[in-house]
Amino acid sequence: MNATIANDRNTDHVDLLMNKVESSADATARALVNTVLSPRFYTTRFKDFDEINVEPVRAEWDAMMAEYEGDNNHDHFQRDARFAQEVNQLMPQLTPELRQEFIDFLISSLTSEFSGCILYNEIRKNISNPDIRQLMTYMARDESRHAGFLNQSLKDFNLGIDLGGLKRSKKYTFFKPKYIYYATYLSEKIGYARYITIFRQLERHPDKRFHPIFRWFERWCNDEFRHGESFALIMRANPHLLTGVNRLWIRFFILAVYATMYVRDHSRPLLHEAMGLHSTEYDYEVFRITSQICRQVFPVELDIDHPAMRAGMDRLVEISAAHQRAKARGGLIGALLQGVHAVRAFGTFARMFFVPVKSHELPEQVRVAPVW
Ligand SMILES: [Fe+2]
Ligand SMILES: [Fe+2]
Q1: How far, in Å, from the CA of 227 to the mean position of ligand 2?
Q2: Are 249 and 179 in contact (CB under 8 A)?
Q3: Taking a C-beta distance cutoff of 8 angstroms, is the pair 357, 251 a contact?
Q4: What are the boundaries of each domain within the chain?
Q5: Distance CA 120, CA 254 (A)
């Protein structure tokens, strides 16, 4: 890590502390924020979902639906007796900085989970395609459990978010259905990779498990994995989504999802340090797992170890911190600087986009097992 990035991280840190979340209203305000980096709520053109045909992957689809129906996590999202005990024992030991990063992590995770819940529910309500309706019912069920479970942990800090209010007040971003497939598939799979990497790390180092919620991550991320499988089957059943110009869209979405995660995670370095992880190594491990999984559906894969890709990621972290400083400065100069940094970020992203990708043939069998 170079000195500039270390300094920028400190600045980010001050920013997180200056905008502390101390009440439910602050937590809701944080969840309502819409920036390039924050989780968003989505809406789409629902009627297109009526035209999806899953017949080409029927056998794999039916096996997956049977798993959803079996609902092996139906009793998972309940706290055990140890939970409250661990919260009471561990939380007072956190430094104020780590506490804020952890709260930020809970709020952004909850916003993403709830975003999935709303989108899947809205699709279900607005379509008649029986296969997709059934799928959306199951996925909304899972995401609602996930969001509720996170909200309980926020309530321990007296920071519970009013989900009904959030649903009504947060801005919705329109995405064409095909962008929903790419982005949602990726966010489900990267969600799996993030949770399993944390779970495995804390399995090896239980002394670094500073909150009981991490004990839930293994079975939790199997839900996310299965959600991703659903979108993989939808895309493989409609192969035009994976050829021609769409290969460029796939590249774009992989890069956007990876870069967003990288920048966001690097504004919370203490969270990873507390678990004995380093944000950079953690993120590349998550990229590695996600890229392996994505071979089931995407014909192209980013070269995550390419020096230009790695340099670009760090540059985006640095630009994001500079953008934050310009925003804090305010006034005309602050506004001009923010514009300059936005252009720099765009240029860096474009250069990363043109780093050569790896291409491969898609496997005959679509589904893969969550074995990481
Ligand atoms: Fe989820
Ligand atoms: Fe999910």
Answers
A1: 5
A2: yes
A3: yes
A4: 3-75+86-302
A5: 21
